[in-house]
Design goal:
Blueprint: E1 6-7, E2 14-15, H1 23-38, E3 42-43, E4 50-51, E5 55-59, E6 70-74, E7 82-84, H2 87-107, H3 111-137, E8 143-145
């Protein structure tokens, strides 16, 4: 009985067994993966390597089973955690909106005054946040190291 020789689907090179992997194609895929890791539009503030998308790892990594965890952005190369440069502004903006709601409850402002001021402040904050978001998306130095670690 003559056995038919199996060939690679990509480059048509002969393979030893039907379940073996073509070494030439495997090298090409490995090189593509390496270059993909070193190219991207964002720069890690710790190792200065480029990446296209941060990894999301559980934070804190050493939490016990009873402690809550969340996911946090980290560098795919050095695994250091970082956050957005503009995160402080986002938190301040939303704290201002919550404080307006609190002041309405304390001072008992009529609904017309509260909603007029609330919507005016909300419209201004949304416009500012939109401009910051647009600048942040296109900024290669978007991330800073997280100081809490």
């Amino acid at each position: 009985m003559s056995e038919e020789q199996v060939h690679c689907v990509q480059c048509d090179a002969p393979l030893k067994t039907p379940d073996s992997v073509c070494t030439f194609c495997e090298e090409q895929l490995a090189n593509e993966a390496k270059t993909e890791l070193l190219t991207g539009r964002y720069v890690c503030p710790a190792c200065n390597l480029k990446f296209s998308k941060p990894e999301q790892l559980p934070y804190p990594a050493t939490a016990k089973w009873y402690q809550p965890q969340s996911s946090k952005a980290c560098c795919p190369h050095c695994k250091c955690f970082f956050s957005s440069k503009y995160l402080k502004f986002y938190k301040t903006a939303f704290a201002l909106l919550y404080s307006l709601s609190f002041l309405r409850g304390v001072y008992g402002l009529p609904n017309i005054y509260f909603f007029t001021g609330f919507f005016a402040v909300n419209a201004v904050l949304l416009a500012i946040l939109g401009v910051i978001w647009y600048r942040e998306i296109n900024n290669p130095d978007r991330y800073i190291l997280d100081k809490r670690i």
